[in-house]
Amino acid sequence: SDPTLLILPGDGIGPEVMAEVRKVIEWTGANGGPRFDVQEDLAGGCAYDAHGTPLTDGTMARALAADAVLLGAVGGPRYDALDFSLKPERALLRLRKEMDLFANLRPAQCFDALKDFSSLKPELVSGLDMMIVRELTSGVYFGEPRGVTGEGDGRVGINTHRYAAPEIARVARAAFDLARRRQGRVCSMEKSNVMEAGILWREVVEEVHRDGYEDVELSHMLADAGGMQIVRAPKQFDVILTDNLFGDMLSDVAAMLTGSLGMLPSASLGAPRENDRPRALYEPVHGSAPDIAGQGKANPIACILSFAMALRYSFDAGEAATRIERAVEAVLADGVRTGDLMQAEGGRPATTAQMGDAIVGKLSGT
Ligand code: NAI
Ligand code: MG
């Protein structure tokens, strides 16, 4: 039977961009790409409206059983006053936690038509294709002890940067596996010059490398120097492997290499299951964009590229993924632009649906 793809459109522009992804999913299934048993469910504010909770146990169970989950975005000002446990964002936190998604993948890929849009000089980013793999479930955001103690001048804020060897090993394996499907190079970033957790990080990454990944080229960089190199010469990188804190910063820096938030996909992967497929959640980096929701202004490309990542990393359909990426590239080269891209040169304004249709049109033409 067909693999299951659980779609959670969510709130704000989530359902708008997901409607365009649906067109791409249908096209792919009808044209030699994988076919899916597509299921749809509520997550975020819309689930709260319907059920009084941002993610029901039933939806959680479907997500755990699905071969992959594709999420639009959650949240919005209507829900800002809710108790923390009922907030739409809790849906995402619960999905990440229960699916045990420890590897966050953020590609920084430059589409040539948008190279003037980057914060860097066009020649530095033209042809750029790198991927940051960030550890997502441990490190200083979770380590104990934590808290603020004392009073007045005696107050102390405490967080603990803690990594256990298996936590490093599993995200390292994810990065090496990924590099094999790309250019075969991993650069690991930590601060082993000043942090014990960094010394262990480097040690364990080298152990994992020796133990079955010697065909992948491994290098190391201190995370501060790495940040500098990402901005100075980003094309030197294939896969960057790093921890939760450094990955948070480095992936936001890398995002600015390619321009609009409306272009950026992401994936979060867990451990491989019996069927060899890791648990996986694919989603655009952007949020629910309440300022433009319901107006047909949202750029659906980030979500469409997230589906392409699902094809490549969950369903071994790299060829179908590449076709989608080429169609996106071609549409951008034609000058089709949602509002967020209008400052790029030679653009013609398009609505969300017109952008989706143009991409499907290119797919059909190739
Ligand atoms: P946002 O990403 O929703 O919007 C930031 C800016 O980028 C806005 O001006 C928006 O119009 C623009 N933008 C975002 N996506 C776009 C797209 N596809 N096309 C064109 N323009 C786009 O971040 P913001 O405003 O901080 O948060 C809004 C809501 O989304 C909040 O409730 C927040 O909690 C939630 N959020 C949800 C995320 C998720 O579901 N993963 C991630 C980030 C925020
Ligand atoms: Mg961040």
From TrEMBL:
One of its GO terms (biological process) is L-leucine biosynthetic process. Residues 4-359 form the Isopropylmalate dehydrogenase-like domain. Pathway: Amino-acid biosynthesis; L-leucine biosynthesis; L-leucine from 3-methyl-2-oxobutanoate: step 3/4. It is an enzyme of class 1 (oxidoreductase). NAD(+) binds at residues 76-89, 287-299. Its cofactor is Mn(2+); Mg(2+). Mg(2+) binds at residues 224, 248, 252. It is found in: Cytoplasm. GO terms for cellular component: cytosol. InterPro entries: IsoCit/isopropylmalate_DH_CS (IPR019818), IsoPropMal-DH-like_dom (IPR024084), Isopropylmalate_DH (IPR004429). One of its GO terms (molecular function) is NAD binding. Catalyzes the oxidation of 3-carboxy-2-hydroxy-4-methylpentanoate (3-isopropylmalate) to 3-carboxy-4-methyl-2-oxopentanoate. The product decarboxylates to 4-methyl-2 oxopentanoate. This is 3-isopropylmalate dehydrogenase. It comes from Hasllibacter halocynthiae. The lineage of its organism: Bacteria, Pseudomonadati, Pseudomonadota, Alphaproteobacteria, Rhodobacterales.
